[in-house]
Structure formats: structure tokens, C-alpha cells
Amino acid sequence: MMQDDRIAALATPLGESALAVIRTSGEGTLQALSRGFSRPGTLQEAPGNTIIYGWLQYDESRRVDEVTVAVFRAPRSYTGEESAEIYCHGSIPGIQKIMELLFTLGFRQAEPGEFSLRAFINGKMDLTRAEAVHEIVRSQSRKAQSLALNRLSGRVFEEIDRVKSRLVDIMAAVSVQLDYPDDELPGEDDDSGYVRSLIPMDTVQDAVSGLERLVSSYRSGRLYQQGARVALAGQTNAGKSSMFNLFLKEDRSIVSNIHGTTRDYIQAPVVLDGIPLSLYDTAGLREVDEIIEKEGIRRSGQVIENSSVILYLVDGTNSDKSAHAFDEKQLERIGELNLPCVKIWTKTDLPQCAPAPKGFLPLSMISGEGFDRVQQAMMEALLQGERLAGDGDLVIDSLRQKQLIDDALDGLQQALTSMEGDQPLDIIAMDLQRSIRSLGEITGEVSSEDILDRVFSGFCVGK
Ligand SMILES: Nc1nc2c(c(=O)[nH]1)N(C=O)[C@@H](CNc1ccc(C(=O)N[C@@H](CCC(=O)O)C(=O)O)cc1)CN2
Ligand SMILES: Nc1nc2c(ncn2[C@@H]2O[C@H](COP(=O)(O)OP(=O)(O)OP(=O)(O)O)[C@@H](O)[C@H]2O)c(=O)[nH]1
Ligand SMILES: [Mg+2]
């Protein structure tokens, strides 16, 4: 990607809307834009952070749209470059015509994430903030958006920077010793004590626990951003579709006492505790020869295998022994797949319902009794020991960041082991250096084209 040319992109969805925003950026943007503007002088002389009204046009007789243009002067803009935002009418052909005009004026279509890439290159934001911009746009729940806002305001950056600067201080002292090994070198026998005086264990331990906290927030970060797939499974008539409707608070899936009512699985989105869930009602499991139902069961099997958590329902009023054996076989298979599973005993409102066996949560779809407990158990299964994040918590949501923190932790743990094993100072220094490098990569202080490509290519065009 070149940084010295002018880029343009639609920043809002392409569709019918009251207004649409087209972003432009790069040195010479206002000069270029003014050649297609009804008031070229006004636009060129406009101070930064002002809005100019006028027409986009090839000339007086070939007008393209009536617009307002927001003017940003370098370095006071999102990208840090001279920029302009065009507020036009939100019509698809209108937008297309404006983009064509911009191309003839010397702008090119921006790559995905290119505005944010430029902001990073021009020192407007570090990589954790740039990733947060993208995470905000993608957030599917209010909680996910709040957590991404914390990151945009620099909370991840600050935490990483805090840990890193302590390690850098240690490295500085270590480097001096490595460069001038003869200075104040104590006796050979007392080497480890001297290494420990240069590298305070508790500072390294503190760095480890800070980084471990961040890594462990990743699971809930993922959960808030990506959500989870929840499959309702069990034999026919167990109450899966009833439960599906209970989740959605809507009569969405057909419920009947005829076994095999649901054949095609049904998917619906639902947000629970700020976590966007994809809920699947599946075909009841049973041995059948009928070809359509058989296919429905096969497809449901795939949905179940690909879910993050399974809610397995058993009809508590069914006293049939072979039915119980069938359930046990299914649960065994789920166990083998290593999928988290919540076992639910349904129809507890009916007098013929047997008491829920050990490990099963009782539930009545009619009264809703037990539903809170089931939802809670499902969340616990999804979080696997993590606690739910609060709005103000520091939670990471980038696999890239998580992997780099893992690398940094690895280096620190290695350093600690080497210290315990009284390894020479230069070996320990290499481990510390590796950690520092990984931390620098998280914020983008250390970066390469590859890294930047990986971060920004997933963005939307116009971001
Ligand atoms: N019109 C508009 N609204 C927007 C954005 C945008 O790019 N344009 N944003 C895009 O994500 C978000 C806000 N983020 C922004 C970040 C920095 C600057 C900016 O111009 N910063 C300058 C000037 C700051 C100042 O005047 O004090 C700077 O940092 O130097 C603008 C928006 C959401 N709303
Ligand atoms: N009393 C009572 N009836 C229930 C309960 N849950 C489900 N039912 C009834 O049980 C029958 C089957 O419920 P569904 O939700 O259709 O069962 P399913 O698991 O989706 O069945 P298939 O689609 O055939 O696999 C319906 O008549 C429901 O009204 C419950 O908790 N209490
Ligand atoms: Mg059903």
C-alpha cells in the first residue's frame, strides 16, 4: 500500500438513506476535490474542522450532487493527513456517480482498513486501538461495544505498555552488564545472586500475572464479540421447539405432541447477558427409515457437532427403558466429542413426571420454572471457569493480541526457569528480549508489512 496518494471510499452502507458519507484522504485532497466543486476557492481556503456547502460537478452544466464537505487539515484528522468527508444524498446511483467523479479527480478506491492503517502509520493510534475501531464496528451487542470502547480509549495499550516498560528497565541494566562484563563482576560462585539483583523476580512475576489476566479475558472477549452456537438436542417430543420459543419469547418453531415435528433445523439469533447467541432447534433424534426425517436428523447431527454448547433435553414423563438407553448413548457420544453439555429434564409441571435424576436440571416450559437455572448453567458451560466481564473491564478480543501475549508469557516463564537453574545472564536476556519484542508487536511499536496486512485487511472499506 502506498501512503502518498489520495484515497476515497464510501464510509456508510451502499443503499437508500437520508445521507451517505464518502471519506477522502491524502496530501492534496482539498486541491483535488476543489476541481470538482462549485466553490473551489472556498473549499481550498477553508480552515480545518469546518463544513462547506456546495455542488459536486464536472462543470456548471454537469452537476453530480448537492453536498456538504467537512474539511480536515493535517495533522488534525482521523488519518493525520489532509482529509475531507463528503455528506451526500444516500442514493446508490448518486453515490456511484460521486465515486466516478472522485476517480477522475485523482483519487483511488481505498483498500479495506486503509484509513485506519494511515492513522496508525501517522501515529494517530497504536495497533490495539486500530483493532478496537474494527471491533466496535463489528460489535453485535451493547456489552461487546462497551468492551471495545475501553480498548479504543487505550486500556489495552496502557496495560501492555506498563508491563513492557518494566521489562525494558530490567533489560537496560542487563545490557550494561553484558556490554561491560568486567565491571563490578562478582566472584563466579555468587553468580546467581548477582543475576537476581539485576532481574528482580517479583517484577517478572508481576508482569506474568498482568499478562495472564489479559490472556484469560480472551475467552469472554471472544464470547461477547463472536457469540456462541447453542444447539437444542434430544429425542422427539422432548420439548426442544418449546424451549426454542421460550428463549425467543416468540411462537417461532412448530410445537406439537406428534413425534418428529421438527425436521429442518431452525436457527435464530438471541442476545443473552450481552452475548449474541445463535440458537438451533434441531430434529428430534430417533431411529427412522423415513428418508426426509432421516436427512433432517443427519443435518441436525452436524449442527450439534459444530455447536459451542449443547442443551440436551429429556422428556421427564417418558418412562420407557429403551428411551433412556437411547439418551445415554447420545450423551456418551456428546461426551466423546468433548462438547460442553447441559442436561435438562423437561415437563416437570406434569404429575407423571419423574424426579430429575442427578446431573439433570428440571424445567417446565409451561410455567418457565427452572429456565433461569438452565440459562445460568449454559453460561457457565460457555465461560468454562471465566467470570462474565463487567462493562468497565479490560477484555481482549483479538486472536493476534492473545497469541502475542502467550509468546511474551512464554519468554518470561523461560527466563524465570533459567534464573532458577542459574543459567548465564545472556541466556536469560534473550528470553526477556523475546517477551519485549512480542509486547511491542501488540501495540505496533515493532511491526512489519505482514503484521499490518494481517491487522487491517479484515476491516471494512472506508474504515
Ligand atoms: N464525521 C466523522 N465522524 C466520526 C468519525 C469520522 O472519521 N468522521 N470517526 C471515525 O472513526 C469516529 C470518531 N473518531 C475520530 C477520531 C479522530 C478524529 C480527528 O479528526 N482527530 C483529529 C482532530 C482532533 C481535534 O480536533 O481535537 C486529531 O486527532 O488530530 C475524528 C474522528 C466516529 N465519528
Ligand atoms: N406440560 C408440558 N408440556 C411440554 C413441555 N415441554 C414440551 N411440552 C409438550 O410436549 C410436546 C412436544 O414438544 P416440542 O417442543 O414440539 O418437542 P420437540 O422436542 O421439539 O419434538 P420434535 O420436534 O418432534 O423433535 C408438545 O405437545 C409440547 O406442548 C413442558 O415443560 N411441560
Ligand atoms: Mg421440535
From TrEMBL:
Residues 227-383 form the TrmE-type G domain. It is found in: Cytoplasm. It is an enzyme of class 3 (hydrolase). (6S)-5-formyl-5,6,7,8-tetrahydrofolate binds at residues 23, 85, 124, 463. Its cofactor is K(+). GO terms for biological process: tRNA methylation; tRNA wobble uridine modification. The keyword Magnesium applies. Pfam families: MMR_HSR1, MnmE_helical, TrmE_N. Mg(2+) binds at residues 241, 262. GTP binds at residues 237-242, 256-262, 281-284. The keyword Metal-binding applies. Its main location: cytoplasm. HAMAP family: GTPase_MnmE. Exhibits a very high intrinsic GTPase hydrolysis rate. Involved in the addition of a carboxymethylaminomethyl (cmnm) group at the wobble position (U34) of certain tRNAs, forming tRNA-cmnm(5)s(2)U34. This is tRNA modification GTPase MnmE. The lineage of its organism: Bacteria, Pseudomonadati, Spirochaetota, Spirochaetia, Spirochaetales.
